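Hello Y.,

Per our agreement to keep a running log of every chain we model this quarter, I'm adding this entry. I've kept the format consistent with earlier entries: sequence first, then predicted structure.
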Amino acid sequence: MPSPLTVDTAIQFFPRGGSSIVVQYLNRELAARGARLVVACGSLGDAGQFSHAATFYQGLPIAPFDYTPAADAYRNGRPSMDGQRAPFHPSFEDRGPTAPDRQATAVAPATFHHLVDAWHTHLSRHRSTHPDVLHLHHLSHLQEAAARAYRGIPRLTTLHGTDLKLLQHAHESAHWQSRSRPPRSAWQTPCPRTPSDASAC
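Predicted structure for the entry above:
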């Protein structure tokens, strides 16, 4: 009889939408089929709240990454990412100045590396000893953190609606830029060196 499958899961977001529900349903089904699990996930708030990982994923073995201190720091005028042991996750959309989650495209390189380092530490500390696979959700800094924490372990990523919208927007932007960019020859035409020939530029 084959040994049970060991599946680790990682999702940066605290429970707040459809992707968390997918993670919940999928891991409950895997547990019912005998798989050994660890779910590394964001968490926010106190027990009993929808955003609290242990409440939302009740019955599943979780490793919560608690954003509550970072959110509290932001409410008190301090950064929610830089300098935080558990930096708040970025979001795909601009949620405005009152939200602690900065838009992903506005995250500075140094902050991105801080996010990677924090999640690398978290994943390394809480991963299964011998996982068969790591299942990531969304495109984020977790891919880089997981590449370090799960070196040599098969990894797969499920893209959700927000990821697909982001990729579609990037594709459309690249297509528009390619159509609006001047032809290469326009940048290679030498400019006359004398004022009398300036009209030829």
